[in-house]
Write a structure and sequence with these properties.
This protein has 155 residues and is α+β, with helices and mostly antiparallel strands. It is 34% helix and 27% strand. It is built from 4 helices and 9 strands, in the order βαββαββββββαα. The chain has helices spanning 13-19, 55-69, 115-133, 143-154; strands spanning 8-11, 36-42, 45-52, 75-80, 83-88, 93-95, 100-103, 105-106, 109-110. Strands 1, 2, 3, 4, 5, 6 and 7 form a 7-stranded antiparallel sheet that branches. A two-stranded antiparallel ribbon has the order 8-9. It is globular, with a radius of gyration of 15 Å.
Length: 155
């Protein structure tokens, strides 16, 4: 399977067992379908950014952050396939291709978000990574620890 930035994928439960990070979002919510992830391909590492249909919940968080800071770059509320979705950059984490369960499909075709939305997500993700490099960590998971674990698996 060729993994590409901008497509949506689902991850295997095995990843969550191996990483064992309590700050990762669960792969299933009360017996419902797997989480859908926007994917960024970065050499051997893939960055997974969860999407959530709980837009009202996250819209309140975005509004609170905008009131407090004047902006919010950790959660985006955008149209994804004709439905609003919360794109949770704050919950991003690194993984490997071997942990991908399957590509998300819409009408039987691999699901890729629109190019403009890809640009918005990449812009915000890169900014969060730059902030992290400067000592301002806005990610909920320990992305350094998870990335090291993933890179160790490759070697």
């Amino acid at each position: 399977m060729e993994i590409k930035t901008g497509y949506l994928y689902h991850i295997k439960d095995e990843f969550f067992d191996i990483v064992d990070d309590e700050n990762l979002m669960t792969n299933h919510e009360r017996g419902k379908k797997r989480q859908t992830y926007f994917t960024i391909k970065d050499k051997d590492i893939l960055w997974f950014i969860p999407l959530s249909s709980k837009v009202d919940k996250y819209r309140k968080i975005v509004e609170n952050k905008k009131e407090k800071y004047g902006f919010c770059n950790t959660i985006l509320i955008e149209d994804v396939f004709d439905e609003k979705a919360a794109i949770l950059l704050q919950n991003a984490f690194p993984t490997l291709e071997k942990y991908i369960d399957h590509v998300h499909t819409v009408d039987g075709k691999p699901a890729m978000v629109p190019e403009k939305l890809i640009e918005i997500i990449l812009y915000n993700f890169k900014n969060l990574m730059k902030l992290k490099q400067r000592g301002i960590n806005l990610f909920f998971t320990d992305i350094d620890k998870i990335k090291k674990k993933m890179l160790d698996e490759i070697e």
